[in-house]
């Protein structure tokens, strides 16, 4: 009871300070809101919407259960999650934050995951997508596509290690742990696919409408969090709270012989990963290795902005947030360690020699490449895709309301 009262008082004070800060810094708050809206409008919405819609349709048709039966022999012994976790892992890696949480929550609601399995799965299936790591961070911020190799390897190797560590989390309860082994996996997979499709007897049109409706609702929520934390980050800076926190972080960085000027980028990255990564790349007196390790930590921790999005999604499916938060800290530490360990054998060996080799190709992500051009065109076309999708969502919602009235 006492803890609950303290929590209420703390939250009330925080909201009051936030409201007063918005009134005190209206111009700065508006600019921060526009920056957050622009990020959601141009990049987040158009890049995540196709993955969300396709995943909803795949779940409805039973394709996810089909994949789950095939991947059961891999996912169960390694990560102690059902085979459907392989689908979530692949989609989360391809589409980026917070897709892994969205798909995990959806499968939990479908009854394909227990609570413990969902908490294990979500801990290592939320990751940054390769296009953001190479296109935005390596090329856009550091102007160095080769750096993307280290960032990507550190990020995904750290995620795999988190998944292996989290397999020891919790005790399995329910039917999943005692499922019999299947001799004919392919036949069982097709049988599961067929049964799932018959069970979900919605027409294709309604299934697509539900997929669009659910996906856009989730993306609207994500947009709200992006704008909110963009404003909070700006207000913390103008209230000099960021500088105060940076002083404490400087002491920690000095223990590891890091440049003290990386403290403010780290604080900013703890709240919002894009801003933190950008500020880290702008620290001129920091060695590139230190910048790489810092960005690796920021990308893995993913920032309170992404974590708030994940917490909101998980709450809808009765999945606890605490294991995910602990996993993000572990992932951040592991990603920084991997960046340090891979620096000499990968980056210095292949790219900083007199005769650089192409053993690890990055030409696809260089400026002027088709991948980088695609990334820039996606940003240009992002607002058009967003407007069209929101208009479609409005039409679907209108007809559904009209149908319910009649």
UniProtKB/TrEMBL annotation:
Family annotation (InterPro entries) = Gate_dom, Spore_IM_YlbJ
Q: Which keywords, in A-to-Z order, does the entry hold?
A: Membrane, Transmembrane, Transmembrane helix
Q: Where is the Nucleoside transporter/FeoB GTPase Gate domain?
A: 44-141, 219-315
Indicate yes or no for the key word Transmembrane: yes
- Residue ranges of the TM segments: 48-71, 83-101, 121-142, 149-169, 216-239, 251-271, 291-313, 325-343, 381-401
Protein name, as recorded = Sporulation integral membrane protein YlbJ
What is the organism field in this record? Bacillus salipaludis
């Amino acid at each position: 009871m006492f803890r609950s009262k303290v929590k209420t008082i703390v939250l009330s004070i925080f909201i009051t300070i936030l409201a007063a800060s918005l009134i005190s810094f209206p111009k700065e708050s508006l600019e921060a809101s526009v920056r957050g809206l622009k990020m959601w409008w141009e990049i987040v919405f158009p890049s995540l919407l196709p993955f969300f819609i396709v995943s909803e349709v795949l779940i409805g048709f039973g394709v996810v259960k089909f994949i789950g039966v095939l991947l059961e022999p891999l996912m169960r012994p390694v990560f102690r999650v059902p085979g459907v976790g392989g689908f979530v892992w692949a989609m989360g890696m391809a589409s980026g934050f917070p897709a892994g949480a969205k798909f995990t929550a959806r499968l939990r609601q479908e009854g394909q995951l227990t609570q413990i399995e969902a908490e294990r799965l979500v801990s290592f299936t939320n990751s940054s997508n390769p296009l953001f790591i190479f296109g935005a961070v390596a090329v856009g911020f550091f102007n160095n596509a080769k750096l993307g190799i280290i960032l990507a390897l550190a990020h995904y190797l750290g995620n795999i290690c988190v998944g292996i560590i989290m397999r020891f989390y919790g005790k399995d309860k329910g039917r999943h742990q005692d499922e019999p082994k299947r001799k004919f996996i392919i036949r069982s997979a097709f049988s599961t696919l067929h049964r799932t499709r018959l069970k979900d007897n919605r027409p294709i049109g309604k299934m697509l409408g539900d997929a669009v409706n659910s996906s856009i609702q989730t993306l609207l929520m994500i947009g709200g969090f992006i704008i909110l934390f963009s404003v909070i980050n700006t207000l913390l800076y103008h209230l000099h709270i960021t500088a105060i926190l940076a002083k404490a972080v400087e002491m920690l960085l000095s223990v590891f012989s890091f440049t003290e000027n990386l403290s403010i980028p780290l604080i900013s990255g703890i709240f919002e990963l894009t801003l933190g990564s950008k500020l880290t790349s702008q620290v001129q007196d920091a060695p590139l290795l230190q910048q790489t390790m810092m960005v690796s930590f920021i990308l893995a921790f993913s920032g309170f902005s992404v974590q708030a999005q994940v917490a909101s999604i998980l709450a809808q499916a009765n999945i606890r947030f605490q294991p995910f938060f602990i996993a993000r800290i572990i992932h951040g530490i592991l990603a920084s360690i991997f960046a340090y360990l891979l620096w000499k054998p990968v980056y210095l060996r292949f790219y900083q020699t007199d005769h650089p080799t192409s053993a690890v190709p990055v030409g696809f992500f260089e400026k002027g490449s088709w991948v980088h051009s695609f990334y820039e065109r996606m940003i240009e076309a992002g607002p058009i895709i967003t407007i069209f999708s929101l208009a479609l969502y409005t039409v679907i919602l209108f007809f559904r309301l009209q149908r319910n009235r009649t």
